[in-house]
């Protein structure tokens, strides 16, 4: 084991479902953000974490128990440019899954066409983890994938949000922001960050994933996440996406309960019409139109 590997701590194992959410998810719910890991799959070096094993079979069971109809599998940083595990999952469940890959910015059009036929619908930029693509690669990638109708998925820091519209101006493809852009939930700065997300959704074809509150606060009783979700749903319900973030990587001192996470989102968005957009319709249109 290299020194770099030793610096990548092992994630906590996910919690098993012990109950279902008090209210069922809307029929047709799409989980737009989850990862899978398999024992023996080569890990990238350097990397930010070492995953606990959670396979596609595990997610199929998890999603089936919760009534999740379909999912969008996102390439994790620990596999770098090696998308084989993701592509195997898409091949096994072609009607149920779509994928977001990480590829070299100079990838040939023929390879992008092959990935598209396998169910890939986007490329991920990740400025927060070792092994992720930098934001500088976004414009080159956007030019390569725009003709395929893919999205550009961004896992970025909140201070990068104000510049995204300018950085990616004219790219002619949807942009998806992971985990509310990791904005801090402190009440004194919350409105400024919510306004930044709204401006981005107004200025470009941008969607925001209302996911993973534990990445924004250590206090799971913090109402900030629900308040942000409610505020964005009031103005941009057609631009929000829900995802489980299963199996909750990069956690070492506390693992969330999936039923509680879903209930938090349901409490924030209690209008059935709005909930249907966020849990079902927006993702259907963005990822499963073909």
TrEMBL record:
InterPro entries from the UniProt entry: Amidohydro-rel, Aro_Compnd_Degr_Hydrolases, Metal_Hydrolase
Keyword Hydrolase: yes
Occurrences of domain Amidohydrolase-related (ranges): 30-288
Organism superkingdom: Bacteria
Keyword Hydrolase: yes
SUPFAM superfamilies noted in UniProt: Metallo-dependent hydrolases
Keywords: Hydrolase
Gene Ontology MF terms: hydrolase activity
Stated name of the protein: Hydrolase
């Amino acid at each position: 084991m290299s020194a770099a590997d030793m610096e990548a701590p092992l994630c906590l194992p996910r919690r098993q479902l012990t109950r279902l959410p008090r209210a069922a998810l809307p029929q047709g719910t799409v989980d737009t953000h989850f990862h899978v890991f398999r024992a023996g799959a080569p890990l990238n070096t350097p990397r930010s974490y070492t995953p606990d094993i959670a396979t596609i079979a595990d997610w199929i069971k998890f999603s089936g128990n919760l009534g999740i109809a379909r999912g969008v599998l996102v390439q994790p940083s620990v596999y770098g440019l090696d998308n084989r595990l993701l592509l195997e999952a898409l091949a096994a469940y072609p009607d149920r899954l779509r994928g977001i890959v990480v590829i070299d910015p100079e990838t040939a059009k023929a390879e992008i066409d092959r990935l598209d036929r396998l169910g890939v619908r986007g490329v991920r930029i990740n400025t927060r983890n070792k092994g992720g693509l930098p934001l500088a690669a976004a414009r080159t990638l956007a030019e390569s994938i725009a003709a395929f109708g893919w999205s550009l998925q961004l896992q970025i820091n909140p201070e990068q949000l104000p510049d995204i519209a300018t950085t990616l101006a004219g790219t002619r493809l949807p942009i998806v922001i992971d985990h509310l852009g990791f904005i801090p939930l402190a009440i004194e700065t919350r409105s400024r960050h919510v306004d930044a997300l709204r401006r981005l959704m107004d200025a470009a074809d941008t969607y925001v994933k209302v996911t993973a509150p534990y990445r924004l606060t250590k206090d799971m009783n913090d109402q900030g996440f629900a308040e942000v979700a409610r505020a964005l749903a009031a103005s941009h319900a057609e631009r929000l996406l829900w995802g489980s973030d299963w199996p909750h990587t990069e956690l070492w001192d506390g693992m969330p309960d999936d039923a509680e996470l879903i209930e938090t989102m349901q409490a924030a968005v209690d209008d059935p019409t709005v909930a249907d957009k966020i849990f079902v319709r927006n993702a259907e249109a963005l990822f499963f139109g073909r």
